[in-house]
Amino acid sequence: MNVRLLKKIAGKVGFAVLLLAILLFTVFPFYYAILTSFKSGSELFTVDYWISSFDFANYAAVLGQGSFVKSIWNSVLVSLATVLIAMGFGLTAAYALGRVQFRGRSAVLMIVLGVSMFPQVAVLSGLFEVIRAMNLYNDPLALIFSYTIFTLPFTVWILTTFMRQLPKELEEAAIVDGASPITTLFKVFIPLMWPAMATTGLLAFIAAWNEFLFALTFTLTDDQRTVPVAIALITGGSQHELPWGNLMAASVIVTVPLVVLVLIFQRRIVSGLTAGAVKG
Amino acid sequence: MPTASVPARRQSSKVRRQRLRAAWLFLIPMLVVLAAVAGWPLVRTIWFSFTDASFSSISEYGWVGFENYLVYDDGMWFGVLADPAWWQAVWNTLFFTVVSVGAETILGLIIALTLNARFRGRGWVRAAVLIPWAIPTIVSAKMWGWMLHDQFGIINDLLMTLGIIAEPLNWTANADLSMWAVIMVDVWKTTPFMALLALAALQMLPSDCYEAAKVDGINPVRVFFKVTLPLITPALMVAIIFRVLDALRVFDVIYVLTSNSEDTMSMSVYARQQLVQFQDVGYGSAASTVLFMIIALATITYLYLGRKQIGGEA
Amino acid sequence: MACVELKNINKTFGNEEILPCVNLRIEDGEFVVFVGPSGCGKSTMLRLIAGLEDPTGGDIEIDGRVVTEESPKERGVGMVFQSYALYPHMTVYENIAFGLKLGTANKSRIREWVEKTAEVLQLEKLLERKPRELSGGQRQRVAIGRAMAREPKIMLFDEPLSNLDASLRVQMRTEIAKLHDRLQSTMIYVTHDQVEAMTLADKIVVLNRGNVEQVGTPYELYEHPASLFVAGFIGSPRMNLMPGRIAGATGGASTQVEVGGLGTLTMNRTSDGLTPGDAVTVGVRPEHFRLELSGPDRGLEVVNVEYLGNEAYVYIELPAMDELMVVRQPVPCEICPGQRVELGTDADLVHVFDHTGRALPAFTPQPEAAGVAEAANR
Ligand SMILES: Nc1ncnc2c1ncn2[C@@H]1O[C@H](COP(=O)(O)OP(=O)(O)O)[C@@H](O)[C@H]1O
Ligand SMILES: [Mg+2]
Fold this sequence. Notes:
By secondary structure, chain A is mostly helical. Chain A is 75% helix and 0% strand.
């Protein structure tokens, strides 16, 4: 009797410890970045486990740099435009792939899946040439163009799985009402796809916001960069003296919007991630 | 009863033809875009790999055949395939892929099993688990770079306080440690993805086999290995494949955390260094092409095995 | 207003032949019900008529015009789906008007049409609501309204009442019947519920595994089932089907059948082509038996008596049958389980089916004339 009770308590405690470990593991680095971002001067060189000071000097310094603010703006612009483009092409393609039986359908799906597996570096020189030819080098437009390589396949893929879940009878009702495929897509399906579109858009936005390789390669000057590149290129007086306070403040600035989005839309994000992977 | 023979297959109806036309009409823009951003650049990359193009003047180049890949010249082998640094990059990438995906899978499963239990605040914990996934790789590399700092890093401080190490370690610069530092960051960043997919698979399991096992009084660990794991393996495999293909092209985390150090250089970092830093588009393209081939091969193998498995089940 | 004709319709999905060869004519203004067990191909047939499915072979004609390749709109059909399939993001008004807006009509015409439809279906007060704010019955009415707004020549219903609860189902059934009286359009209605079929139909089409078993009025189907399948399917409780053998002389005006436990029955059916000893199935509806209490060692044992209020079902064990026999009795019913009874029936009310399941035809005095008429029908 006593042994069983002990076992039960031990189980509960063990579970709580496990949970705590998981939370610590996932949240601590972000917490530590916030902690560091509030420190300045020599405070940085003592290790603290608790937030003790609230010094916004690092934030002021980062946001005082015109180029960093510009790069936030570039990131927002590039990510939003990428999402819109991927949605536009993705929705129509997802309708075709999700709702119409035709020969070559699985081949197209394979192409889409294949492109999403492309190593980015494998298209780097080819894309560079194309971007040069379009005169878009060192222009955020080049990023919008190149980000399509990963956002579009993945948007198509996820939207297709969502599109497939809409009831068949709804489409048939539209056909009986005399609606053409375009009318059906725009008047019946798209209004019902908002949740799926929000999910997909969010995932595409995060992917575009976080992209680094293309942004690093296709932009040259500070005022054309996106935030990941701007952060990666923050340097101090010498190479071995990075301004860690500024760096962490910048990191927190670009991450907080994402974390807020994740906390609000976690259910949607989970459904999107699993729709893309498990059902594929 | 008139036994009318079934007439020959007819042409499909107008509605069907209209839908087919619309389907292709809807697909063509997407296919054109994919061709423009992926197909054509890939073809050009492969083309460049047979030339001596350079980054600054990409339109002027000469044909060099397989020289960028492998050439015997003056009693020596040259080219990507003869470069020890490339093979070091291949080895680094494979090591990174196997270790980090393995660790992510195990940690992901543990987290998924924990989150699969019912407890108060589960939604919040799940949201917290998603945070590393949402943080840009660059940012997470920087955060960890700071935590792993040789003089002021919290990890050295912690390990020294606990008495595990006697003096601070230089995680990112030490040749023996830097790859492990990279792996640590990647595991932190991508375990949530694994955990969520594993959790989704767990939640799709029928609960009756558990109850049967529970009634039979089987040890939970045994239940996990005999019942749960086999059931979620298919879904888990898909997630693992995704992660493997992702890990094989790793760039950001290594580039930011350890820069162009040869100890951690991945295939992608190697290729980009040749392309951009050394301005050697031909040579870099050759490396990129080899990387592409490796990933294509992995994908095709997977698809082939997957189809065989599906065929076997049906 | 239109008549529909299916000519040698064949439908296969992959390798599976769902409809082998269907020939059917539906007259202008008729209310036709397709009935059959689930999976027998009723919906497929309806969807072929609607134009939502292409036949693998054969042709569909509406008013004598081949429409096999035409769209549902060109065919002039309206359809009510089992799950209603209302557009969830549109109001009732928009749902009904959706098809109209795709036509050429102007706004005020559309409003007029929608309002007229809403009035017929008593939806006036609900026009601004979304489908999720409606009850099941109201949704059903909106679905019907959407189907009839364009004034289709043919209205199609695919199990429209199966998602409603029992009392609402009865009410909607009457409303659909009234609607048919009022619109006078051709209606084709699919259901697996034979009560719905019997109460609504001018003509019932009984389907079994993609084959048309029998076409007829509810009366014909009930009184003269053409096959064992129809006999078993129509009527509740089911017709009692007992194994029997041909006894005595065959041919001519009457047939004698021996049923284990019941004795030998004589009935006026022709038994041409059968020889004494052939296995047949004898069918008697539960209400066509007479019961009389018998002595303790004669007759059959009553196993159970179900009292339903307005009538009672008496279950009797017949050694030759796997199932219990059902007899419908008026109330009050004095028979109790454990008692033994004798069964009597009227020879005219007994059905006999040969080993292929076809009903033996009733004897008619002029066999030649009947034969000629039948041949002409082919
Ligand atoms: N699109 C389809 N693909 C393959 N089989 C189908 C399809 N639609 C129906 N079937 C099959 O055809 C048969 C008849 O279906 P249906 O007409 O829906 O039957 P019901 O009489 O219950 O309405 C079923 O066995 C069903 O599985
Ligand atoms: Mg059906």
